[in-house]
Amino acid sequence: MISLEFSNKLELSSSPHIHSKWSTKKVMWFVVLALMPSLISGIIFFGTYQLLIVLVSIFFCITTEFCIKKIRKSKVTIDDGSAVVTGILLGLILPPNFSLTATALGAIFSIAIGKELFGGLGFNIFNPALIGRAFLQAAYPVAMTTWSKPNFSVDTITSATPLAAYKFDKVLTQLKPMIIGNIGGSIGETSAIAILLGGFFLIAVKIVNWRIPLSMIFGMILFSGILWLIDPLKYANPLFHLFAGGFLFGAFFMATDWVTSPITSKGMWIFGFAISLIIVVIRTFGGLPEGVMYAILIMNAFVPLINRLTKPKIFGEQK
Amino acid sequence: MLFFNQKKTFRGGIHPNTYKELTEDLSFEIMPPPKQVIIPLSQHTGKPAKPLINKGTKVKTGELIAEQDGYISANIHSSVTGKVIKISSAVNVNGFIKESIFIETDENEEFCKMPSLNIEAITAEEIKTRIKDAGIVGLGGAAFPAYVKLSPPDKKIDYVILNGCECEPYLTRDYRLMIERTDDIISGLKLIMKAVNASKGIIGIEDNKIEAINKLKKALSNYSDISIIPLKTKYPQGAEKMLIKAVINREVPPGKLPFDVGCIIHNIGTTISIYDAISKGEPQITAAITVSGKGINKPKNLIARVGTPLIDIINFCGGIKSNTKKIIVGGPMMGIAQYDLSAPVTKATSGILVLNDEEVTNFKETNCLRCGKCVEVCPLNLIPTRLARLTQFKKYEDAKNLGITVCMECGTCTYNCPANIPLVQWIRLGKQKAMSIIS
Q1: Across the interface, which of B319, B328, B415 has its CB nearest the CB of A19?
Q2: CA nearest to A125 within chain B
Q3: ipTM computed for the complex
Q4: pLDDT, tens digit, 9 for 90 and up, residues B177-235
Q5: Which three-class secondary structure string do you get for A31-54?
Q6: Do A23 and B363 touch (CB under 8 A)?
Q7: What is the pTM of this model?
Q8: Given the DSSP bridges, would you call strands B336-337 and B263-267 parallel, antiparallel or unpaired?
Q9: DSSP string, B337-351
Q10: Among candidates A80, A311, A313 on the partner chain, residue whose Cβ is nearest the Cβ of B366
Q11: B372–A16 CB contact, under 8 Å
């Protein structure tokens, strides 16, 4: 028998009283898990030094966030895991055997300018890891385009990335090495298998909304396919575009960043298609062989507008 | 073709763990009247009823003790035989202090019923009058007086839909009623169809209630005008608008009611109350309640007298475990946390949940990650995160333009938010502010 005094011990709050098992922290650690195949592939193809790059990147991301929170006298939130995710992402999109000092600078820039300047997690407009990489691209242009030769590389493959090889020498890399990953490229971007493994995992647990990678893939096939059909000798085929460079990594891990992508379903489709269109334009007509980073950063800027324009129709509302 | 065989439903929604196994196999038990009942004068949406008795009056079970006051109001009958001790304010399960009639129960129970009516020969008018006299309110949550729903202003009603979804986790009251009182539900539905002159009846049931679906299907083999529609198990499938969308694919526009799209919805429990009032002459003086949760010692499905204090019900169910954290009246998604266990059960009480510390999850709130998970699951296609933020910035007018007043507060967004932001709580606040701007 309980008595009325028990009332005093009861917890009070407004409904709902139950919650899904997801939290920001858990989501971030799942993303970390999903990035492991790509990290491992980077280590396999380019050596254990790459792990050091990623660790340095993580360390400086966390430290920067900690220091800025302390300076601003706001609550330290590094335990949410988001700085770790940014650190790994930045590490994986750097060239193999990149300088550790430059990595550290990139990580500091990612968090300080890409994230904390805007107010921290959730308030940033641009993907912090890509902001860090864009900074390094400007500060270390040569180092950022110096590609190491992968281990076990077939002799025909040089250290150049497939995109550079095609753009400057019209050498089309075969599909198989691009899928496996023994080609030139950023640490975590070369192995399609590893990326898809992590990407499908994130889709399966519903962290990544399938609409963004799918619309990017559709967009890429569509836009590069049109060019390819116009002149197959001049323009690379859609499959090459899908597997070359940072496209898949961008589609599954960068464009899908919650904070910097649209929140509406329709908006996600527009976002994905537009990114692919920009990638194709930069890769084909621009001076650079690769355009994933710029394409995503450009579209990040449009997200508030896309969200506004794709406001869903309220249930039962007549237009 | 799996695609075409998919169960009917609406867009959005969530799939919380249902915990129905705690009580779904338990038949209803009848709880004896407690020593004292506290019967609130307001157990329904609308104006409180007017008391007809004074301190010291002796009343019988089923006797009218407070009458309906105004159009949207409902009669209240004594749920026990005994003596009125006082009429004064008391805490109720909605967290408000309400005028209530305190009755001390007598050991010798005497009943006071209305005459039974012949359900075959009855007219539409007689059905409505009886529902009004018996003080029946809807048992789906809002406790809207049932006869008001049955008198739609000049609208052609083609469907009467019974809500057998029971999408709130833990609750198994409607499920048990469908199994134990199958035929009475069908008779009740026929009576409602007659009252509004509707030609078709539909019972929508979530597909996790297989036994109920089978039993009703079997009982309905002779009826061509009533059909069972199994629906996808999903919260909030039992919300009126969602149910209508799923079963007849009509969308109730914001601010409109089901009869605007030609249908009337009643809860399973209400249908049984209607049947009992007409065929047995019983007013609504009992509540069918699921008592569940991992914190209660003996989970039960109970028939309790209206006015029974929560504490008596909890003790009747063997008391609680030591790690109990919260006691809720209603379901875990929309129910109300209790702060005083002397509050009484009312006509519309559907469940009492005793939740322990493992069932009530308390995550730390973090910044909005703009993940869109709330947009993805909102059944009304709102943008909860923006509505919450506009409320925080006190921009109620903007929130109104984005549909904040349309929100039915189902809590789906909050359940799904990985940042654990109390979205629906903010929206509730913003909704009230926005509505006061209008008036």
Answers
A1: B415
A2: B370
A3: 0.90
A4: 999 999 999 999 999 999 999 999 999 999 999 999 999 999 998 889 999 999 999 99
A5: HHHHHHHHHHHHHHHHCCHHHHHH
A6: yes
A7: 0.91
A8: unpaired
A9: E-S-TTPBP-TT--E
A10: A80
A11: no
